[in-house]
Write the structure tokens for this entry.
Amino acid sequence: MTTDPQSPAADYRQAGVDIDAGNETVRRIKSIARATFTPGVLSEIGSFGGLFRLDTARYRDPVLVSSADGVGTKLKVAFATGRHDTVGADLVNHCVNDILVQGADPLFFLDYLATGRLSPEIAEQVVTGVARGCRENGCALLGGETAEMPGFYADGEYDIAGFIVGVVERPKIVDGRTIVPGDVLIGVPSAGLHTNGYSLARRVIFDVAGLTPDAFVPELGTTVGEALLAPHRSYLRAIRPLLAAGVVKGMAHITGGGITENLPRVLPEGCAAQVDRRAWTVPPIFRFLQERGNIATDEMFRAFNMGIGLIVVCAKGDADRARDLLATAGAPGLNVIGEIVRGDRSVGYLN
């Protein structure tokens, strides 16, 4: 094959992929990730695979629990505000909660960051958030992938996903099988939308209401951008004492699908949930979205968490103890928001 002498020499940079920027990104994030390493980590950032040694002396019958997720269109708010240091922690906390509801402690985390044009500065901000989430949850940022894909993502935009692995003793797996009618539901507050419902929220706020990210909204007491970037809480520290006390029968992380879709996932056959919407005060962001978007209440409870980020199912006799343990661990505003009744796996609401 011959080269056309009239054609300019082609290289990867001209095709839109900057290898030097990729190397600079790796250089920046190495120390950030290394600061999250726990004693189980056996590899360095940059290896083809991450190595982690499970301390088997700590467990009699360990079961690994894994999950993968993303941040969704909350990223659009990060792009619009130019703030990229929070979504990484959101991602970690979301994944931690997903394995926590089965009783697992996180061991390690991996991230995948894909963008159209790699900016080492933005990548560093994103990974700094990931690392902060890992440190706060006691898990290692074991590795990941940064992909530059020109033509696939718009300039200035990226996507991020995460993968987590945790461990739980087999007899202590929380799977909801002991839930029975008469058990109660304890709602643990969220810090806002968390990482779900943003497609609807953005449509209401930016398209219907015509607001900008820096618009101050008196009802919210902050700007639109700050309200939408409120962090996705991790419930690990709050729930650990309940797990140790053995008072948890089941847990539901209230993510996409809201209470309506997520709570039935932990119910055994013959059990349904009845939730009293009057049992807690719905935060202003949700009331604002419902009023401005003219959204039906049932749709709100399917699209958003409505101020409840996690639901704990326990025996009625353990409710006070569970609430005390949660409060001691720093979970504020706890309420018994409903109970388990006989029926098919579903959620009914008291208005």
About this structure: The longest helix spans residues 120-137. Residues 184-350 form a domain with the Phosphoribosyl-aminoimidazole Synthetase; Chain A, domain 2 fold (CATH 3.90.650.10).
